[in-house]
Structure to design on (1384 residues):
C-alpha cells in the first residue's frame, strides 16, 4: 500500500514541482539583475491561463503538430517515473535504465523538432536545425557521464545508482566529479540554458528552443512549456541525486522518505541557484562555439569513464 | 513439424522462385501478367521460406543435405543451422513484403521498361540470397554469391536509359568483383589449409592452421565481405548503386543483401576460424565506429532521398559491426556469455535494420513515384497528400533514429550494454577502444535523429516546395499494405524484444566460438536483463508507459479545455507573405552540423553569379551549390585508378591484337607451368 | 550576493507609487465575460509597431528594466502573437502596416485584448489626417483599451496596465 | 582398355599425333579438314573402346556427342564454310617449313625430357602413349600460333582439344563423365562461335588472314 502511494508521489512529483523550479530560477536571476522579478509560482499561472485560452493552429500544420505536445509531455512523465527522487528502495527495473531516459528525451526532442518544421514558418525550421545540432552533439557527453556513475555502482538502473555512489569515499570521487562536470554541460545544452540558448529571448534570430514553439498557442503551448519545465527539473534531479546522493532514504518508511524529500528540495534549490548564478555571469556563445563545449563534455566524461575501476 | 523442415520443402521453395523467374520471363511481352506472376510467386516463395526458416529456428538445425556432383570440390549441399536459418528468415521476411509492394509499385514501369526482365532478375536475386545464406560448400557459395551480385547488378541498371544508373551499375560491378577476388583468396587459403571446401570440414581442419594463415584469411574476408557490406572506405558503390535500382529492390539490397556480408563475417570469424584474435575485434570496432559516424554524417549532407537512406545503411552496418567486434573481443578473451550478448545485439540490429530500412526505402519509392523527383528540396507537405505513407515513413524514421519504444532503440540498447560490459571487464587499452565505441554509437544515434528530422520534416511537413509535389497522391493498396506490414513488424520487434533476444541467444550460442552461452536473462513482463541485473529493460513497459501517460494527459487537458475552441489560421508570417522558399531547406538544415564537422567532411561551396552589366555591379542571378568534397575518390580511388591506368599502359604493349600472339602466350605459360611442376615435385 | 538575492532591491518603484498615474481607458464598455479571471497574474504582451516614432517603444522597453520591473506583476513580452494575450499597438498605423497588424490580430488566440498605446495609436495624434496613415488602431481592428500620452511615461503605462488587469478581473459580468 | 592391345593403341595415338603434325604442312583447307576428321575418328575409336570397359549412360551420350560433333558436324561446317566463301589454300604461316620442322622437333624433345616425367606418372596404360598425346597438344597449340588463316587456327584449337581428350584417356580419366561431357560441350560451343565469327569477319574484311585484321583493334 505504501509502495503504491510512493509510486504515485514519484510519478506526480516532477510535473507538480517543475513549474516552481523554473519560476524560482527566473526569480533568482531577476534578483541578481536587481529586479524583484515574477513570483516563483508565475509558471503555474501562465500554464493555467494558457489552458483556458483558445488555440490558433496554422492551416499548414498536420496531425503531427497537434499530437506532438501530448507525446512530449508523456515522455517526461515516463522519465519522471524512472529517475531517483527520494528513496533508493524504490526501483523501477522496467524503464529505469539510463539509456531509456536519454532516448526518451531524444524522442521528445525529435517530435518537437518535427513540429517546428511542420507549420512551414521561417523560424521553426532553423530552430529545429539548431536544436538537432545541439541535441546530437550532446548525446555523447550525456551517455558517457551517466555511464561513469553506472559503472561505479555496477548497474545502469538510475534508481539503483545513488545507493552506491553515496558510499564512494572522497579520495576516489574524481571520476564522479569529472562526470558531473560533463553532465552539467550536457544539462545546460539539453535544457536550453546559457550559454547554449537564452530561455527568455524575444529575438527570433538567436532562438533555439523558442523558435520551434512560436506557432503553438493555448493548451498545446501550455503542455510544451510544462514539458520543458519537467525536462529542466529532470536534469536537475539527475544531477542532484546521481552525483550527490546524500540524504536519500534507503527504505520505504514514511519518516525517512519525508526527510529525503525535504533534502531533495534543498538540493534541487541549490542547483537552481547555481544555474541562475551561471546564467547571470556568462554570455551566450556563438552557435559554432557550442560544439567545442559539447566535445569538451564528451572528452571529460570519457576520461571519467576511463578512470573508473 | 519435423516434416515441415525437410529438405524437400526447401527445394520446393527454390522451385517457386524458379517458377516466378521463368514465368515473368515467359510473359515478358505482357506487363501485367509478368508483374502478377513474378511478384506473387516471389511473395509465395518468401512466405514459405519465412515459415520454413522460422520452423528451423524453433525446431533446431537441419543437417547438411543436397546433391553431390561429379566434381570432387563442388558439392551442391545446403545446411540450415541456426545462423543460416536466421539470415534466411530476415531475407524472406523482407522479400515477402517487398514483393507485395512490388505488385503495386511495378505498375509505373508498364510500357517503359520490361517488367518481365525485372521479375526474372528479382526472383533470381532473392533465390540467390537464400542460397548464399544456406550453402554449405565454399565453391557453391561462391557461385551463389556471384549470381546474387550479377542479378543485383542487372537490377541496378534496370532503368537502362538513365545514364546515372549505368554508371552506378558499372561502379558496383567493379567494386563487387574486386571484393569477390578477396573472397576467393580467403577461400583458397582455407582450402590450402584444410584440403576441403565443405564448411564443416573446413571448420574442423582450421584448428591446425597457423596464426599467419588465419590472420590472412580474416583480413581478406574482411575486405571481400566488407565491400558487400559497405564499410567505409569500401562503401563508394553503395550510395550510387542502391538508389539506382527500383525501390523495392533498393529495399532488398539495403535491407538484406549487404547483410550477407555480415553473415559471412560472423560465420568465418566466430565459427570457421577457431579462437579469434583480439585485434580482429578491435579492428571491427574501429571500422564500425568510423562507418557509423561517417555514414550518418554523409547522410546528413545528402539531398537525394534514396542516397540519404543508402548512407544510413553504411551507418547501421557500422553499428552491427560494433556488436560483432565486441563479440569477437569477448570470444578471444574467453568470456562466452558476453560474446553471446554482443552477437545477439549485432544480429538483432541486423534484423531491425532490415525492417526499418526496407520500410524507409519503400516509403521513399512511393514518394518518388508520386512526385517524379528524388531531390528532397523539391518535396514538402506530403503528409497531407500521402498521409498513410507519411505515417509509415515516420515509424521507420523513429525506429532508425533509435527512439523508444520501437525496435531500433532496443538493439542499440543491447549494443550499448555489450560495449559497457567491455568497458567493465577488459584491460586499459582495449577498454579505451570500447569507450570510444560507446561515444561513436551515442553520437551516431543523435546525428541519425537529426538526419531523420531533416528527411521526414523536409519531405512530408510544411508546404510543397514545387509544383509537381503539390499534385502528388497516395500510393496504391499493395504498397501501403507492404509498408503497414513492415511497420507492424517494427512495432512487434520492439514490443516482444524479450522473446527475440531469447531466440537470438540460441542462434549465437550455436556458434563454435561462443559455445552455448546465454545472452541475456528474461524476467517478468517481457523484461530483459543482462549480466545478472547490470541492466534491465522492459519494452512493453516503455510502450505502455508512454501510451498511458499520453492518454492520461490528453484526457486531463481535454477536461480542462473542453469549452475552448481551436481555430485554424494562417501560419504566423510577421505580416509578410510566406512562400515555400522561406521554409528551411535540407541544405540549410544540415549545413550547421556539416560546418561543425568540416575537418572530416570537407564541405565545398561554389558560387555562380550572373551579372547584368560588364562591371559586375548588379547581379542578376546568383546560385550557390553546396556539397562535399569526395575524399575517398580524391585520395584513395583516384590514385588507385591512375596507377591502374599506368600499368595498363604498359600492358597494352603485350596486346598486339594478333591471335597467334595470344596463343603463343598460352603456349609459353603452359611450358612455364610444366617447369614449375617439375620444380615442385 | 546572497543578500542581493534575498532582499528586494532598493531602487525598485513600489506598487503604491505606481498606482493612479494613469489608467487604461476602456473603449468597448463592459469586458467580455470570457476574459474574467483568466489573466489573473499572467499577461503576455505582443507589441506591434505600426509606424510609430519609436518614442513609445523606448518607454515600453523601459518597463522591463530593474527600476520599473513589470515582470513582478506577471506581465511579460513574448515573441509570437500566438503566445500573447494583449496586442499593444503603437503608432498611427501606416497604410503599409495595415495588413501586418490585421494578420497579427488574427494570429492571436481568443480571448484577446487590444491596447492602443500613445496618442498616435489612439487617433493618429500629430500625424492625424495624413494620406499615409489610417488615423489610429480602431480604424483597423477593434480596440479594447487606450493608454493616452505622447508618449506615455513608463509609470503611466504600468499604472494603466494594472488598471486594465484590475478591470478585467474585478468587474462582475452583467448577468450575474 | 583391355579390348585394345597396346600396339593398336599405339597406332591410334600415332595417327592422332601424325594428323596434328601433318596439319602443319597441308596447303589446302580441304585436306586440313580431312586430317582433322581422321584424327577425330581415331579419338572416337579410343572412346568406344573405353566404353566397353565400363559403360555408363553418360559415357554413351559423350561418345555420341563426340562422334557427331567432331567427325560429322564440325567438318560439315567447315566444308560449308570454304564452299560458301570459295576458299582453297591456307599457305601462309609465320615460319617457313624447315623452321617449323625444327620447332616441332624441339617440342617433341621437350615431351621426351625429364621435365615431363612428373606428368607421365599419371599414365594408366603406357607412359609412351601419354607422351605422344602431350606432344599432340603442344604441336596443335603451335599450329594455332604459326598459322595466319583463321580457319587453320580453329583447326589447331580443335586438334588441341583432341589431344587433350587423348591425354585424358591415356591417363585413365575417362571414368569421370563430367570431364567427357565438358569437353564435348566445349567443342560444340567452340565450333558455333568460330563459325559465326569467321563468317562475320569474312563479310567485313573479305579475308580470313589475321594479319589483315589488324584494323579490328581500331
Amino acid at each position: 500500500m505504501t509502495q503504491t502511494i510512493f509510486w504515485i508521489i514519484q510519478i506526480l512529483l516532477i510535473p507538480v514541482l517543475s513549474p516552481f523550479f523554473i519560476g524560482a530560477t527566473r526569480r533568482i536571476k531577476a534578483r541578481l539583475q536587481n529586479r524583484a522579478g515574477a513570483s516563483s509560482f508565475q509558471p503555474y499561472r501562465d500554464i493555467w491561463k494558457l489552458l483556458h485560452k483558445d488555440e490558433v493552429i496554422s492551416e499548414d500544420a498536420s496531425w503531427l503538430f497537434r499530437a506532438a505536445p501530448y507525446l512530449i509531455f508523456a515522455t517526461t512523465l515516463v522519465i519522471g517515473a524512472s529517475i531517483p527522487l527520494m528513496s533508493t528502495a524504490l526501483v523501477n527495473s522496467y524503464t529505469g535504465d539510463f539509456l531509456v531516459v536519454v532516448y526518451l528525451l531524444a524522442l521528445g526532442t525529435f517530435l518537437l523538432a518535427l513540429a517546428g518544421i511542420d507549420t512551414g514558418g521561417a523560424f521553426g525550421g532553423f530552430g529545429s536545425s539548431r536544436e538537432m545540432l545541439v541535441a546530437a552533439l550532446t548525446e555523447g557527453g550525456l551517455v558517457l557521464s551517466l555511464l561513469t556513475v553506472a559503472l561505479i555502482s555496477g548497474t545502469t538502473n538510475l534508481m539503483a545508482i545513488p545507493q552506491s555512489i553515496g558510499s564512494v569515499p572522497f579520495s576516489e570521487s574524481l571520476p564522479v566529479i569529472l562526470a558531473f562536470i560533463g553532465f552539467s554541460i550536457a544539462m545546460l545544452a539539453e535544457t536550453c540554458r546559457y550559454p547554449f540558448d537564452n530561455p527568455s529571448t524575444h529575438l527570433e534570430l538567436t532562438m533555439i528552443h523558442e523558435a520551434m514553439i512560436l506557432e503553438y498557442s493555448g493548451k498545446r503551448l501550455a503542455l510544451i512549456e510544462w514539458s520543458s519545465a519537467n525536462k529542466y527539473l529532470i536534469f536537475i534531479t539527475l544531477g542532484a541525486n546521481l552525483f550527490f546522493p546524500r540524504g536519500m532514504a534507503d527504505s520505504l518508511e514514511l519518516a525517512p522518505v519525508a526527510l529525503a524529500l525535504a533534502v531533495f528540495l534543498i538540493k534541487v534549490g541549490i542547483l537552481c541557484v547555481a544555474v541562475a548564478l551561471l546564467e547571470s555571469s556568462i554570455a551566450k556563445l556563438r552557435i559554432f562555439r557550442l560544439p567545442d563545449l559539447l566535445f569538451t563534455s564528451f572528452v571529460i566524461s570519457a576520461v571519467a569513464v576511463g578512470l573508473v575501476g | 513439424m519435423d516434416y515441415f523442415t525437410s529438405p524437400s520443402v526447401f527445394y520446393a521453395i527454390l522451385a517457386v522462385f524458379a517458377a516466378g523467374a521463368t514465368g515473368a520471363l515467359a510473359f515478358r511481352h505482357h506487363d501485367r501478367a509478368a508483374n502478377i506472376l513474378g511478384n506473387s510467386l516471389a511473395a509465395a516463395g518468401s512466405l514459405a521460406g519465412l515459415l520454413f526458416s522460422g520452423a528451423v529456428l524453433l525446431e533446431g538445425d537441419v543437417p547438411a543435405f543436397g546433391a553431390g556432383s561429379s566434381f570432387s570440390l563442388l558439392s551442391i549441399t545446403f545446411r540450415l543451422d541456426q545462423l543460416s536459418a536466421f539470415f534466411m528468415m530476415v531475407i524472406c521476411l523482407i522479400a515477402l513484403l517487398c514483393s507485395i509492394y512490388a505488385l503495386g509499385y511495378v505498375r509505373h514501369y508498364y510500357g517503359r521498361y520490361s517488367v518481365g526482365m525485372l521479375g526474372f532478375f528479382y526472383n533470381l536475386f532473392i533465390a540467390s540470397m537464400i542460397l548464399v545464406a544456406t550453402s554449405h560448400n565454399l565453391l557453391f557459395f561462391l557461385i551463389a554469391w556471384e549470381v546474387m551480385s550479377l542479378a543485383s547488378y542487372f537490377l541496378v541498371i534496370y532503368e537502362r536509359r538513365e545514364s546515372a544508373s549505368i554508371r552506378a551499375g558499372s561502379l558496383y560491378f567493379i567494386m563487387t568483383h574486386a571484393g569477390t577476388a578477396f573472397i576467393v583468396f580467403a577461400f583458397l587459403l582455407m582450402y590450402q589449409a584444410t584440403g576441403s571446401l565443405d564448411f564443416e570440414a573446413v571448420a574442423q581442419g582450421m584448428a591446425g592452421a597457423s596464426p599467419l594463415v588465419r590472420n590472412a584469411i580474416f583480413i581478406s574476408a574482411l575486405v571481400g565481405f566488407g565491400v558487400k557490406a559497405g564499410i567505409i572506405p569500401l562503401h563508394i558503390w553503395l550510395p550510387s548503386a542502391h538508389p539506382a535500382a527500383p525501390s523495392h529492390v533498393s529495399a532488398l539490397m539495403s535491407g538484406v543483401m549487404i547483410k550477407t556480408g555480415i553473415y559471412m563475417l560472423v560465420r568465418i570469424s566466430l565459427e570457421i576460424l577457431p579462437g579469434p584474435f583480439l585485434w580482429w575485434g578491435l579492428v571491427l570496432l574501429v571500422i564500425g565506429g568510423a562507418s557509423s559516424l561517417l555514414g550518418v554524417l554523409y547522410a546528413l549532407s545528402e539531398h537525394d532521398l534514396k542516397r540519404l537512406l543508402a548512407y544510413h545503411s553504411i551507418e547501421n552496418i557500422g553499428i552491427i559491426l560494433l556488436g560483432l567486434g565486441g563479440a569477437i573481443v569477448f570470444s578471444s578473451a574467453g568470456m562466452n556469455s558476453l560474446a553471446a550478448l554482443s552477437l545477439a545485439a549485432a544480429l538483432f540490429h541486423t534484423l531491425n535494420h532490415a525492417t526499418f530500412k526496407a520500410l524507409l526505402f519503400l516509403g521513399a519509392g512511393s514518394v518518388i513515384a508520386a512526385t517524379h523527383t528524388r531531390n528532397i528540396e523539391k518535396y514538402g507537405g506530403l503528409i497531407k497528400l500521402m498521409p498513410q505513407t507519411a505515417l509509415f515513413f515516420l515509424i521507420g524514421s523513429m525506429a532508425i533514429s533509435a527512439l523508444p519504444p520501437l525496435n531500433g532503440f532496443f538493439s542499440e540498447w543491447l549494443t550499448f550494454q555489450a560495449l559497457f560490459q567491455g568497458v567493465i571487464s577488459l584491460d586499459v587499452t582495449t577498454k579505451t577502444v570500447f569507450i570510444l565505441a560507446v561515444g561513436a554509437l551515442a553520437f551516431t544515434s543523435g546525428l541519425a535523429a537529426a538526419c531523420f528530422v531533416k528527411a521526414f520534416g523536409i519531405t512530408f511537413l510544411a508546404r510543397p516546395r514545387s509544383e509537381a509535389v503539390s499534385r502528388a497522391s497516395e500510393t496504391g493498396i499493395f504498397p501501403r499494405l507492404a509498408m503497414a506490414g513492415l511497420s507492424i513488424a517494427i512495432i512487434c520487434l520492439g514490443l516482444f524484444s524479450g522473446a527475440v533476444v531469447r531466440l537470438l541467444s540460441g542462434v549465437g550460442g550455436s556458434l563454435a566460438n561462443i559455445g552455448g552461452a546465454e545472452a541475456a536473462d528474461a524476467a517478468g513482463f517481457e523484461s530483459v536483463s543482462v549480466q545478472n541485473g547490470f541492466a534491465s529493460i522492459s519494452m512493453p513497459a516503455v510502450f505502455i508507459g508512454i501510451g498511458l501517460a499520453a492518454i492520461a494527459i490528453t484526457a486531463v487537458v481535454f477536461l480542462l479545455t473542453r469549452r475552448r475552441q481551436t481555430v485554424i489560421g494562417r501560419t504566423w508570417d510577421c505580416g509578410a507573405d510566406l512562400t515555400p522558399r522561406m521554409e528551411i531547406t535540407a541544405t540549410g538544415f544540415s549545413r550547421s552540423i556539416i560546418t561543425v564537422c568540416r575537418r572530416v567532411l570537407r564541405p565545398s561551396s561554389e558560387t555562380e553569379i550572373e551579372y547584368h552589366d560588364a562591371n559586375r555591379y548588379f547581379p542578376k542571378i546568383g546560385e550557390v551549390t553546396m556539397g562535399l568534397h569526395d575524399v575517398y575518390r580524391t585520395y584513395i580511388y583516384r590514385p588507385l585508378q591512375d596507377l591502374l591506368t599506368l600499368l595498363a599502359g604498359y600492358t597494352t604493349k603485350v596486346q598486339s591484337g594478333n591471335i597467334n600472339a595470344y596463343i603463343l602466350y598460352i603456349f609459353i605459360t603452359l611450358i612455364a607451368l610444366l617447369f614449375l611442376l617439375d620444380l615442385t615435385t | 550576493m546572497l543578500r542581493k538575492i534575498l532582499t528586494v532591491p532598493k531602487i525598485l518603484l513600489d506598487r503604491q507609487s505606481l498606482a493612479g498615474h494613469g489608467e487604461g481607458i476602456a473603449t468597448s464598455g463592459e469586458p467580455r465575460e470570457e476574459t474574467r479571471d483568466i489573466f489573473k497574474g499572467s499577461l503576455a504582451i505582443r507589441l506591434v509597431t505600426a509606424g510609430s516614432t519609436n518614442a513609445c517603444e523606448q518607454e515600453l522597453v523601459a518597463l522591463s528594466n530593474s527600476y520599473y520591473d513589470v515582470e513582478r506583476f506577471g506581465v511579460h513580452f513574448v515573441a509570437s502573437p500566438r503566445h500573447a494575450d494583449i496586442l499593444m499597438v503603437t503608432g498611427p498605423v501606416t497604410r503599409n502596416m495595415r495588413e501586418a497588424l490585421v494578420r497579427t490580430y488574427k494570429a492571436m488566440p481568443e480571448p484577446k485584448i487590444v491596447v492602443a498605446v500613445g496618442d498616435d495609436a489612439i487617433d493618429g495624434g500629430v500625424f492625424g489626417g495624413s494620406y499615409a496613415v489610417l488615423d489610429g488602431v480602431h480604424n483597423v481592428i477593434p480596440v479594447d483599451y487606450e493608454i493616452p500620452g505622447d508618449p506615455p511615461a513608463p509609470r503611466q503605462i504600468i499604472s494603466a496596465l494594472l488598471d486594465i488587469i484590475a478591470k478585467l478581473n474585478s468587474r462582475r459580468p452583467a448577468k450575474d | 582398355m583391355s579390348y585394345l592391345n597396346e600396339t593398336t593403341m599405339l597406332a591410334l595415338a600415332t595417327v592422332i599425333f601424325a594428323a596434328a603434325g601433318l596439319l602443319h604442312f597441308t596447303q589446302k583447307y580441304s585436306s586440313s579438314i580431312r586430317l582433322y576428321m581422321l584424327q577425330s575418328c581415331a579419338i572416337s575409336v579410343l572412346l568406344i573402346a573405353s566404353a566397353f570397359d565400363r559403360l555408363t549412360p553418360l559415357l554413351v551420350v559423350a561418345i555420341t556427342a563426340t562422334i557427331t560433333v567432331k567427325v560429322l558436324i564440325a567438318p560439315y561446317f567447315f566444308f560449308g564454310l570454304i564452299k560458301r566463301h570459295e576458299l582453297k589454300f591456307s599457305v601462309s604461316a609465320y615460319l617457313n617449313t624447315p623452321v617449323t620442322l625444327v620447332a616441332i622437333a624441339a617440342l617433341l624433345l621437350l615431351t621426351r625430357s625429364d621435365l615431363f616425367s612428373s606428368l607421365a606418372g599419371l599414365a594408366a596404360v603406357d607412359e609412351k602413349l601419354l607422351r605422344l598425346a602431350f606432344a599432340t597438344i603442344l604441336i596443335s597449340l603451335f599450329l594455332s600460333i604459326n598459322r595466319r588463316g583463321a580457319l587453320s587456327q580453329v583447326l589447331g584449337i580443335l586438334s588441341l582439344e583432341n589431344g587433350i581428350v587423348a591425354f585424358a584417356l591415356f591417363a585413365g580419366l575417362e571414368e569421370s563423365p563430367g570431364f567427357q561431357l565438358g569437353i564435348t560441350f566445349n567443342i560444340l560451343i567452340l565450333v558455333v562461335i568460330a563459325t559465326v565469327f569467321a563468317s562475320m569477319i569474312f563479310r567485313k574484311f573479305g579475308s580470313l588472314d589475321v594479319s589483315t585484321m589488324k584494323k579490328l583493334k581500331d
